[in-house]
Amino acid sequence: MQRRTLFRTFIGLGAAAIVGTPLLLRAHAAPADADAFPAHAVRIVVPVSAGGSADKLARTLALKLSEKWGQPVVVENVIGASGTLGAAQVARARPDGYTLLLGGEGVTLNAALFKTLPYDTGHAFRGVSKAVVNPQILVARPDLGVRTFQEYLALARRKPGEVTLGLPGNGGIAHVAHEMLSRQTGVRVNYIPYAGGAPATVDLLGGHIDATLITLAAVTDYVRAGRLTALAVTTPYRSKALPQVPTMAEAGAAGFSVESWQGLIAPAATPTPVVDRISRDVAAVLNVPATRSQLEEAGYVVVGSTAQELDATLSKDLPRYAAVIAASGISLR
Q1: Is residue 239 part of a domain?
Q2: Containing domain of residue 176, as a range?
Q3: Where are the alpha helices (H) located in 3-103, listed in sequence order?
Q4: How confident is the model over 223-261, as pLDDT tens digits?
Q5: 16 located within any domain
Q6: At what angle do helices 84-92 and 106-113 cross, to 10 degrees?
Q7: pTM across the whole model
Q8: I want to staple 263 with a disulfide (CB 3.0 to 4.6 A). Which of 121, 130, 150, 302 is the partner?
């Protein structure tokens, strides 16, 4: 069985120290017949409320995998504590592939945001598949008077701390990404935290705030209708859903790159043959033309990565985001 490392790093920042590798746990995992998997229902834990982008993706995967496997795939929303309650359930679950987490960059963000967690992030999980990337997009109200990313930066520099930027969540990927942008470009804005992307978007449409950094899929239709002005995306590539919108790197923030993603994560000791089986099947269902087209039209970038590739993302993101959170003083308060 090929040995793989999820995280090889050490961070302080109030979070648990992350040392070693979940390899120690995997080495004792019971052998599994991947060809016989699954023999009964599979459970996908979604650590956020029903109706959001993560929930919709989980239900799409559940439907398609159920059809492929001939077994029920059940989505269960376990909400609370910024997603850590659901993650804790998966961390404690039997490592056999039958309990999975619909996770994202929040797994690594929470490791730095929380002083204590009911699991050790570096040893509790292993990647299965990065299903999709959700480009984050900077959008402004049309009457703000900025039409480009450079005009937004110029306004923020001219009026430091006055431009109001709605955050879909305090300490979330949008918050961290804009702090990275602020540190690179020297701009300073007034963050307005919201309990999710929907209320932030409502206030932006109503003219109560100036801009927001949000998952592209949440505002695609508003941009197309001209109700919001799209300035730039955080990914190092443009979105097929809004190909006219430049990347932040193209628009003047050289080298800037932040990928928000969603995918499946398993308990660390889940056997590699089972993990690889699930990973292959996720890639297969995502690449069915109708499914891929539907997700891309909504604004997602379909990936369907291998388990090794997701492990590499987790390993890279953890120290990177932890450093930004520490330096910027971001907290969940």
Answers
A1: no
A2: 136-233
A3: 23-26, 53-69, 84-92
A4: 999 999 999 999 999 999 999 999 999 999 999 999 999
A5: no
A6: 100
A7: 0.84
A8: 130
